[in-house]
Amino acid sequence: MTRIAIYPGSFDPITRGHEDLIERGFVFGDRIVVAVAASASKDPLFSLAERVELVKAAVGGDKRIEVQSFEGLLVDFAKKIGATTIIRGLRYVSDFEYEYQMALMNRKLADGIETVFLVPAFDLTYLSSSLVREVARYGGDVGNLVHPAVLAALKKKFSRK
Ligand code: PNS
């Protein structure tokens, strides 16, 4: 039976840290659905369509990876696509409380879908989309931290402002 794991997030934008976790996620799924949340953050830099396109540009070449957007509850979407595992990354202690709460609530809502936490690559641990946005906004070099398509999109976004 094909195991489907779901990797949800805002991906505003996708970073090398996310890409690393998706690769690691194949321990838990034969297929990974990267689920881009429609209403994840109040004021995302990139639109939902842009975030989906950038995830596709970064990881879409792998046939085992599917990129989809979702609205509403993550567990409802996970059930709809037949996912049995939710993958989340844990970077620092400060991530833990929110992630733990979310995992418990998701299990309450959908018993049987298990959340697993993955540790990112050493060099990518201190990476986040918000830091990437911040550095790129002020013209800093994030070339090592994101896929070239994301770099180009960030440059375009901030050159217009
Ligand atoms: O990348 P993020 O912003 O940390 O991802 C958070 C996300 C999108 C995974 C989370 O907010 C989510 O699952 N949102 C969908 C709505 C939902 O199911 N909320 C209840 C979680 S207990």
Describe the model.
This protein is α/β, with parallel strands linked by helices. Helix content is 42%, strand content 18%. It has six helices and five strands. The chain has a five-stranded parallel sheet with strand order 3-2-1-4-5, with helices on both faces. α2 links the parallel β2 (31-37) and β3 (65-70). It is globular, with a radius of gyration of 15 Å. It starts with a strand and ends with a helix. The relative contact order is 0.20. Bound molecules: 4'-phosphopantetheine (PNS). Residues 8-10, 37, 40, 73-74, 102, 105-106 line the site of 4'-phosphopantetheine.
Summary of the model, kept short:
This protein is an alpha/beta fold and 161 residues long.
* Strand portion: 15-25%
Helix count, DSSP H or I runs of 4 or more residues: 6
Class by SSE composition: alpha/beta
Strand order of the largest sheet: 3-2-1-4-5
Overall pLDDT confidence: 95
What is the helix/strand order? EHEHEHEHEHH
How many β-strands, per DSSP? 5
What is the percent of helical residues? 40-55%
Major sheet: size, sense and barrel closure?
A: 5 strands, parallel
The radius of gyration computed from the alpha-carbon positions, rounded to a whole number of angstroms, is 15 Å
Bound molecules: 4'-phosphopantetheine
Taken from the alpha-carbon principal axes, the silhouette is globular
Ends apart, CA distance between termini: 49 Å
